Q: What sequence folds into this?
């Protein structure tokens, strides 16, 4: 008795005995045909499992799984690698060596850059973290509060963050960390025809105002016009009823004046000569003579309580 000769081949089917089949032994006999076909299938399955086992025993198997539509594409590096490394799982295009990675912290990246997901979207206009992107709601809310632009396009300068908004002093701008009034600098003095100061302006009436509410103005003029309570307030200049004289600033016309100092009214020293002409006849004959006598005297007073030019009264204000 001998063993059947097996081939590693997948048989299309297993032969069925028919009643008309003759009885015939031997390797190619009809008696052994169904058994041989079944044996070939078994051998084929055994060999295929061996190849799978060999692949799994290969250390490269633990590096990734490759997927390609054909061996030709695989040989041309047109395939996907599916695997996991210390940073997380990945699907990588072998041709470009770029892919999507699911990192261990839950973030999703493509080629090393974060992919925007619902977790990355923030609805808060005050969320300035680099890990989020604003939603349309957050953008609309931010533009309701201010206008933000980055960079100095066309200006040739460095990139800055600019915010423009309406604040207590009026229209203000913030460039990086520097806050300024838009259009009119803080500390500007102007005159208005109405009796109520415009928004963002204060009456220049010497009042004591908050050092924190008007921090920009305090930084500009300090305690030059008064210390207020010395802690929380400072004084505005008092321009009520005053004429303005430009600061001498070293020209030596109005000597020894400090910026913001007050000056009383004054006349420049001068004198007036008074001539009195008297007519007198010293010879009552036919030839009368005239004698002129000069005497010193004083003019009569004239004028009001002050010296002033023609003028109009307007409201003096200072930009806060």
A:
């Amino acid at each position: 008795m001998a063993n059947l000769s097996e081939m590693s081949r997948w048989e299309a089917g297993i032969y069925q005995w028919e009643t008309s089949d003759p009885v015939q032994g031997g390797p190619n006999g009809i008696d052994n045909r169904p058994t041989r076909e079944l044996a070939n299938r078994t051998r084929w399955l055994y060999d295929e499992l061996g190849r799978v086992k060999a692949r799994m025993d290969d250390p490269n198997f633990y590096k990734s799984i490759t997927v390609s539509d054909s061996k030709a594409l695989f040989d041309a590096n047109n395939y996907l690698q599916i695997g996991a490394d210390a940073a997380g799982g990945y699907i990588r295009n072998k041709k470009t060596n770029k892919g999507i990675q699911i990192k261990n912290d839950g973030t999703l990246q493509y080629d090393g850059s974060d992919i925007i997901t619902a977790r990355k979207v923030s609805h808060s206009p005050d969320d300035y973290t680099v890990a989020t992107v604003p939603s349309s709601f957050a953008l609309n809310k931010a533009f309701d509060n201010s206008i933000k632009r980055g960079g100095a396009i066309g200006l040739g300068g460095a990139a800055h963050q600019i915010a423009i908004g309406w604040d207590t002093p009026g229209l203000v701008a913030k460039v990086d960390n520097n806050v300024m009034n838009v259009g009119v600098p803080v500390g500007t003095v102007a005159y208005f025809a109405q009796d109520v100061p415009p928004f963002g302006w204060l009456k220049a009436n010497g009042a004591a105002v908050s050092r924190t509410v008007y921090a920009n103005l305090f930084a500009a003029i300090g305690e030059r016009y008064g210390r207020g309570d010395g802690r929380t307030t400072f004084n505005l200049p008092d321009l009520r009823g005053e004429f303005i004289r430009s600061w001498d600033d070293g020209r030596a016309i109005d000597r020894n004046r400090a910026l913001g100092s007050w000056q009383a009214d004054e006349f420049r020293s001068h004198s007036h000569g008074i001539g009195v002409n008297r007519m007198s006849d010293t010879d009552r004959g036919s030839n009368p003579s005239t004698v002129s006598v000069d005497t010193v005297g004083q003019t009569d007073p004239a004028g009001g309580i002050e010296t002033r030019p023609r003028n109009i009264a307007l409201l003096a204000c200072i930009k806060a």
